[in-house]
Description:
By secondary structure, the chain is of the alpha+beta class. It has a single domain, classed as Alpha-Beta Complex (Nucleoside Triphosphate Pyrophosphohydrolase). It has helices at 51-63, 101-105, 123-135, 146-185; strands at residues 10-20, 25-30, 38-39, 42-44, 74-79, 89-98, 118-122. Strands 1, 2, 3, 4, 5, 6 and 7 form a 7-stranded mixed sheet that branches. A hairpin with a 4-residue loop joins β1 and β2 (25-30). InterPro entries: NUDIX_hydrolase-like_dom_sf (IPR015797), NUDIX_hydrolase_CS (IPR020084), NUDIX_hydrolase_dom (IPR000086). It holds the Pfam family NUDIX. It comes from Dioszegia hungarica. One of its GO terms (biological process) is adenosine 5'-(hexahydrogen pentaphosphate) catabolic process.
Amino acid sequence: MGADKCDKPQREVAVSIIYDQSTSRILMVTRRKHPKIWILPQGGVEPGESSGQAAIRESWEEAGCPRHLDPPPKLLSLDLEPEASKRYNVYWHIHVIHTTEDAVNSTTDWPERGERDRAWFSVPDAITKICEWYIDEKPVASPDTMEDVGALAAKMEKKSAKRSLKGGAMETALKAFIEDQAGATRGGLAVKAS
C-alpha cells in the first residue's frame, strides 16, 4: 500500500502558456521522447525559485522564449492527485507569459533547440493538440501471446491514467486561460484560425 498523500514530498511544476495577444496564438513544444506530441512548456521549480521564475526559465530552455521577462503571476494551481504508488504529490502552477511571436522566433539558439520542435497554435488548435495526445490510446505493438495481451493492457492502462492526468490538467489550464482572457476583454477571447 502506498504512503498517505500528506506523507509524500511535494513536486512543484511550473507550466507556461506562452501567448501572443496580437495573433491570439499559443506557443507549444513537442515532447522530447515523443516528437509528434505537442504540450505546454513545463518543468520542476528549483530550490529558491518561485513558480513564475521557473515558468520563465522552462520557457527559455524548452521553447526559446525570451529570458529577460518578469516572472508572470500565477493563473491557477492544480493538484494532480497522483495514484497511491507515486513518490510525490505533484502541484502544477500555471502561468501566462505574454510575449510576441517575433520575439520568440528571433531566438535561434536555446538549450533544448535540437531536442524539441516549437510552433504557434490558435487556442482551439492548442486544446485539440493536447486532447489528441491524452485521448488517443493506440497500442504501439501487437501482442503475440495471451501473456503479452495482459502485459500490454496493463501498460496501456498506466499510460492512459498518466496521459489523462497530465493532458486533462493542460486542457483545464487552457480553459482557465480562455475564461481569464474573456473576463479581461469583456467581449471574450478573439481567436484566429492558424
